[in-house]
Design brief:
- The protein is 24% helix and 32% strand.
- It is built from nine helices and 22 strands.
- The longest helix is centred in the middle third of the chain and has 18 residues.
- It is elongated.
- The N terminus is likely disordered.
Length: 401
């Protein structure tokens, strides 16, 4: 566990939602250096629920630097009640730092964070109705599953009968009721992740922050947990703010995706929109694979080498995104369609991807394109290909990648 994450885990288990460090369980005594935390903590005051149509969380022009390094620059973002929003970005883009600012583990240099009409960034972590699920689940190894989930409620002084009821409900939500008496060391990675979710949900937060919680799982279990996580979020109705660097994961889970690039928001949109209508070359390349066509537009026609197609927008240099799956093997009907670009190309490398093949093709003018087709047979020599003009999406920038 990295040192910065370790400090965050300590803050989460020590203060967030009224947590205190464990002092005793099943006859095992634990040294507690923070003796002022041994008394039950007052539960955080619940912010007022957002009015209909109002965002639950508002991030307003937030910036954060560590020394001379600027991590976040003027980030503004609204999150709706009950929304599953994913913060997507490569390593170092600032996504985890943004999550830590919301949780209270860091403070913004400038800007404000509001939740439910209350200024959140002025509150200590334990006064925020926010819980965090970390990449490393930070379960107490000496406590059972039940006691791990119950711990925060005990620290708040919740009545014993209510604790039992709420823990049972939380474990049922994540399908872990049968493991209530088990030790964390006896659980698989997926089961430990479920317990961490239950421990966060049992506190009934308005907002749940998830910092790459599936990254430690193998591919098959990860896909399974993605489906379960999405279903769980729909059932409980809690707002989820999910951090990941995995584009496929973001598209599978999210209502909206906020793409961070070097500390700035590049694009915020629903998964289908951000994939099919990327606004910039960076978005087009980071979310899925694409071909960037750097064309010149004259009189409503884009020209790229020997290719030309009708397009919207003003004249001048323009960059278009053309997804590999939008290039297909041509059919006779394509010859009569004025909005279809038809061309010959030589087959290069062909990669088998299961239900699809990814093929590199060389055009007569020297341009190389990537094509994704259904897996049928190995192609050789020259073939005719086509794409629709509407699938060449004009981007808002013309930067070189």
């Amino acid at each position: 566990m990295e040192r910065s994450e370790g400090r965050a885990v300590t803050a989460y288990l020590g203060t967030t939602a009224g947590f205190a460090r464990p002092t005793k369980s099943h006859g095992v005594s634990i040294q507690n250096r923070d003796t002022h935390l041994t008394q039950p903590q007052e539960a955080p005051k619940a912010p007022e629920k957002a009015a209909a149509g109002e965002p639950l969380l508002q991030i307003r022009s937030v910036a954060k630097s560590f020394g001379a390094r600027t991590v976040l620059r003027d980030v503004s973002l609204d999150v709706a009640p009950g929304e599953f929003l994913t913060i997507l970005g490569e390593s170092g883009s600032g996504k985890t730092t943004l999550l830590r600012l919301i949780a209270g583990f860091e403070r913004p240099d400038t800007g404000e964070i509001w939740m439910g009409g209350e200024r959140l960034d002025r509150l200590p972590p334990h006064r925020r109705q926010v819980n965090t699920v970390f990449q490393h689940y930070a379960l107490f190894p000496h406590l059972s599953v039940f006691e791990n989930v119950a711990y925060g409620l005990r620290a708040q002084g919740v009545a014993k009968a209510e604790i039992a009821q709420r823990v049972e409900q939380a474990l049922a939500m994540v399908k872990m009721s049968a493991y209530a008496g088990a030790a964390p060391s006896k659980l698989s990675g997926g089961q430990q992740q479920r317990v961490a979710l239950a421990r966060a949900l049992v506190n009934r937060p308005l907002l749940l922050l998830l910092d790459e919680p599936l990254s430690a799982l193998d591919a098959n279990l990860r896909r399974q947990m993605q489906g379960e996580l999405k279903m769980l979020q729909r059932e409980v109705g809690i707002t989820f703010l999910f951090v990941t660097h995995d584009q496929d994961e973001a598209m599978a889970l999210s209502d909206r995706i906020a793409l961070l690039r070097a500390g700035e928001l590049e694009q915020i949109a629903a998964p289908r929109e951000i994939y099919n209508r990327p606004s910039t070359a960076y978005t087009a390349q980071f979310v899925g694979q694409t071909n960037l066509l750097r064309a010149e537009v004259v009189d409503g026609v884009a020209r790229w080498g020997a290719f030309s197609w009708p397009c919207e927008g003003g004249p001048g240099p323009a960059t278009f995104s053309l997804r590999p799956e939008h290039i297909r093997l041509a059919s006779p009907a394509d010859a009569d369609d004025q909005k279809t670009v038809r061309f010959l190309a030589t087959i290069g490398q062909q990669t088998f991807c299961g239900d699809t093949d990814l093929i590199e093709i060389s055009c007569a003018d020297g341009h190389v394109l990537r094509v994704r087709t259904p897996s049928r047979r190995i192609l050789e020599g020259q073939c005719a290909f086509a794409f629709s003009a509407s699938d060449a999406v004009r981007l808002h920038d013309a930067e070189e990648s």
